[in-house]
Amino acid sequence: MRFTVFPALPIALGLGIGMATQAYADDPATPQQVAACKADALRLCPLDIPDTRQVEACMQRKVTRLSPACRDTVQGK
User: Fold this and answer.
1) What is the spatial distance between Cα 37 and Cα 59, in angstroms, rounded to a whole number?
2) Which tens digits make up the pLDDT trace of 8-54?
3) Cβ 38 vs Cβ 70: under 8 Å
4) Which CA distances in Å does 40 have to 23, 34, 62?
5) What global pTM score does this model have?
6) Residue 50: is the preceding peptide bond cis (ω within 30°)?
7) Distance (Å, rounded) from C-alpha 2 to C-alpha 24?
8) 61: burial class by Cβ within 10 Å (0-12, 13-18, 19+)?
9) How many CA within 13 A on the CB side of residue 26?
10) How far is CA 12 from CA 49, 61, 64, 70, in A?
């Protein structure tokens, strides 16, 4: 099962509640995983927040610029 941190980002960032798809709902992000990517999402994808799909796509495109902890989270390591 693939993990994704992005559905919890809008909540963690205080920018609203994202509508998680069923696939996301089956594998919610932990607080540690959200913390690993919060700064990167704000830095690299601020215009995509709170749209969780847009944030996920943005971070996938910019995976080489992510912090090591967030990169591991995005890549499912």
Assistant:
1) 9
2) 555 455 443 333 333 344 456 788 888 999 999 999 999 999 888 89
3) no
4) 23, 10, 10
5) 0.62
6) yes
7) 9
8) exposed
9) 6
10) 11, 22, 23, 15
